[in-house]
Amino acid sequence: MSRLPYKGEIQTTAYYWKQWSHLRHCWQMLFEQSHASFFLSCEWVETWLEIFGEQLEPEVLVFARDGDPVGACLLVHRNSWRKCVPIRRIYLNCAGEDNADGTCIEYNRLMCLPGHGTDVAGALWRYLLKDTWDEFVLPGMEAQDRTQRFPDGAFRAVVSQRPSWYIDLDVLRRNGLRYENTLSPNVRQQIRRSIRRYEEISGPISLQSPVDGAGAFRFLDELAKLHRKSWSGRGKLGVFASEQFRRFHERLIERVFPKDRAHVLRVIAGDQVVGLLYSFLYAGRVYFYQSGFAYQEDNRIKPGLVAHFLAINHYLANRPDVLEYDFLAGDSQYKRSLAKSQRTIIWTLVQRPTARVRTVEFLRWVRNRYARTD
To answer: What H or E segment, with its residue span, contains residue 347?
Structure first.
């Protein structure tokens, strides 16, 4: 039996970000019914608005049909300088911060009620066409989300994609499999050798989790120090050098730790810190977000592999509600070593054929032309 089309056109209403408190109930309803990720939860969005709202002044769009909300999103307007040309950009949802402050939204989407996605995407596109912009940025979208595709062939879409590696803990449980037996012999050997060396030098290895919010803040502070230390060794600052980034996550933990949605796990050997992992938990999925490791002079000791190995086994044995351990986007060697399944996350840049975009493209062509003749 075919589904009857929904009646009534989509109406789009734009709200100023400071009206969030009046829109929160609507956003929460759409979030729950659209099965969106943690990165679109009310807690993530309102924390992001508190930290970045004054700077970025986003607008909140609500899409309604016959007076009932069927979709919503945030839009951020910001100039981005490219080759000395100010490009006017619009970002979808919680994005558009300075690179040093970026919170890195993933599993992003245009939130819609089931069956309304195509119409809501069309309404968003019509709304965008009335505005003045050069590029529309859709960061960290789920590859299977059709709402990221826009109909006008005059617009160029530049797409980059990254794998999101994950471990299906539910499959391991149902099949009675040990996690370590899914790893290659080489990876198993690296983990066993590292654990054995830690225990020889410092004592038994174990995993700790904070019992309250104050403990979570202490663990996060320790993680940030290790993170900064490792990045400074590479001549870079790392994300925790940003005051806004720190404040965002401190406030987010304050909101979601009591709900069991933020986890900061600490791995120790005796009284020596091996590393800390910062993750989010929502709807059965652990999203691994950041880490800090105490690296050793002996590069055969792998604190990252050990910490993740213990965390994954912790969730597998003690948290039957956790169905997946997701490393988020990126194709790092350690992710490929520890996980066998992957999804695709897509970053899309929709370019409007404006004079500014054409100028940037011309300057790129000139640079490439002269580079080839040198």
So the answer is: strand 341-351
> CA–CA separation, 64 vs 130, rounded Å?
18
pLDDT digits (tens, 9 = 90+) for 160-204: 999 999 999 999 999 999 999 999 999 999 999 999 999 999 999
Q: What is the pTM of this model?
A: 0.92
Q: Is 241 left (phi over 0), alpha (psi -120 to 50) or beta?
A: alpha
Please state the length of the chain.
Answer: 374
Which CATH homologous superfamily contains domain 165-343? Gcn5-related N-acetyltransferase (GNAT) (3.40.630.30)
Which of 354, 355, 356, 324 shows the shortest CA–CA distance to 341?
324
Which residue(s) pair with 81 in the sheet? 86
For the chain, the C-alpha Rg in angstroms (whole number) is: 23
Mapped onto helix, strand or coil, the DSSP state of residue 208 is strand
Q: Residue 222 has what DSSP assignment?
A: H
Q: Which of 201, 169, 179 minimizes the C-alpha distance to 297?
A: 201
For 10-155+352-373, CATH number out of 3.40.630, 3.90.320, 3.40.228, 1.10.3470 equals 3.40.630
d(CA 222, CA 264): 10
The Cβ of residue 225 has, within 10 Å, a number of other Cβ atoms equal to 15
Tens digits of residue pLDDT in 207-265:
999 999 999 999 999 999 999 988 777 777 788 999 999 999 999 999 999 999 999 99
Q: Which residues contact 205 (CB under 8 A, 6 or more apart)?
A: 195, 198, 199, 267, 268, 269, 274, 306, 310
Give first-to-last CA distance, the chain, whole Å. 65
31: three-class secondary structure by DSSP: helix
Question: Where along the chain do its domains lie?
Answer: 10-155+352-373, 165-343
